[in-house]
Design goal:
With 229 residues, the chain is an alpha+beta fold. It folds into two domains: 132 residues, Immunoglobulin-like (Sandwich), CATH 2.60.40; 79 residues, Immunoglobulin-like (Sandwich), CATH 2.60.40.10. 17% of the residues lie in helices and 42% in strands.
């Protein structure tokens, strides 16, 4: 029996999505439910909807998962999914950086070499007949390997405080850092300044100040004041 063109195309689509469904079940067991949900959304967004586009030339848009906002390592692992048994071209800061194979499960992985500051990257899937997909969502990651500044402005370290034990420790750090004094969270203003009120005990008062930036670089400073009533 001769199968018309539309019927043949529908059969191809049925086989394709049946295969993708089986692959999705496998990925749930291998990578976990959260990744499977991402993949499901990805498949829904990237269904071929243009009836004039030949099935053999359609490539779904790649997607990354597990991308963090900041890092203190120049070597950054990447992972995502795309059309099975094809490859993805990775563009870093608008320059094609590398090509990664997509395995039979639709997963690709590799590593980027970041430069200091904000790095932007995306992927484009391609096959071996020069068909390409739309580019993936652009990802941004901030790379820094320098510990944040901690500067105490008032009072000076090792100062002797008399009369009033209630004072404020004032200083500056990076505006995007988290700051702790003796494990207490300290509010950091948009300009990086902070002020932390304390009540001194008689004798030596030791303070440990810790600043942590978004890339998890850490600075520590010990600070001592003496109170003589």
């Amino acid at each position: 029996m001769k199968i018309d063109k539309d019927t043949a195309k529908n059969i191809k689509l049925t086989i394709l999505y049946s295969t993708l469904t089986l692959g999705l079940v496998f990925l749930i067991f291998r990578f976990g439910l959260s990744v499977a949900v991402d993949i499901s959304e990805y498949l829904q967004k990237n269904k071929p909807g243009n009836e004039e586009t030949p099935l053999d030339s359609y490539l779904a848009q790649p997607k990354f998962f597990g991308v963090t906002e900041a890092t203190n390592s120049a070597q950054f692992p990447i992972k995502g999914y795309g059309p099975a048994n094809k490859e993805v071209a990775i563009f870093l800061n608008e320059v094609e950086d590398q090509a990664l194979p997509v395995n039979s499960e639709g997963v690709f992985e590799g590593e980027l070499k970041l430069t200091l500051g904000i790095n932007k990257f995306y992927a484009i899937a391609k096959d071996f007949t020069e068909n390409t997909s739309a580019k993936s969502e652009i990802q941004s990651i901030y790379y820094s390997d320098s510990p944040p500044l901690i500067e105490i402005e008032d009072p000076s370290p090792d100062s002797v405080i008399k009369n009033n034990p209630s004072i404020s420790i004032k200083g500056k750090t990076e505006s995007n850092s988290k700051l702790y004094i003796n494990d207490h969270v300290v509010l950091v203003n948009s300009d990086g300044s902070f002020s932390y009120p304390v009540k001194l005990e008689k004798g030596d008062n030791i303070f440990k100040i810790v600043a942590i930036d978004p890339a998890q670089n850490t600075s520590e400073k010990d600070f001592k004041l003496q109170f003589r009533p």
